[in-house]
Design a protein that fits this description.
Layout (H helix, E strand, L loop, with lengths): L5 E5 L3 H12 L4 E5 L2 H10 L4 E5 L7 H11 L3 E6 L5 H7 L7 E3 L4 H18 L5
Parallel strand pairs: 1-2, 1-3, 3-4, 4-5
Helix pairs in contact: 2-3
């Protein structure tokens, strides 16, 4: 199966974005990046992405609020990543998020690829592969 889904990587840490990019591009996924939730929202206003890996705590617009705004227009898969799962604010946010929709840093390449593969299969089945 071709991995022609578009994935948006959203994190204020350039090293995290680069690590995710390296893992996913090696398998043929199409990647875009944003440095914060505001930039992600602006990208998603003009373009469709099937999957978003989104940090939660970022400057300007946090990941959770950005995902909420994005979800109003599009319905991508959003997976939250955080290095601060023990932070009180992050814990409060994650209380309503299924455990399959978030994980802690450092990123696990196998988990990243499994999520991307599942998303690609979902969109292939639904016949909604968009460019």
């Amino acid at each position: 199966m071709e991995n022609k889904i578009k994935i948006l990587l959203v994190d204020d840490d350039e090293k995290i974005r680069q690590t995710l990019r390296d893992i996913l591009e090696e398998k043929g996924y199409l990647i875009d990046e944003a440095r914060d939730g505001e930039e992600a929202y602006m990208i998603m206003r003009n373009d469709f992405h099937h999957l978003i890996f989104m940090d939660i705590k970022m400057p300007h617009l946090d990941g959770f609020l950005s995902a909420t705004f994005i979800g109003l227009k599009h319905n991508p898969e959003v997976i939250f990543i955080t290095g601060q799962a023990k932070d009180a604010e992050v814990k409060r946010i994650l209380e309503g998020v299924p455990s399959s929709c978030w994980f802690e840093k450092p990123v696990d390449p196998g988990k990243i690829l499994e999520i991307a593969r599942r998303t690609a299969e979902k969109f292939a089945k639904e016949g909604e592969q968009k460019k």
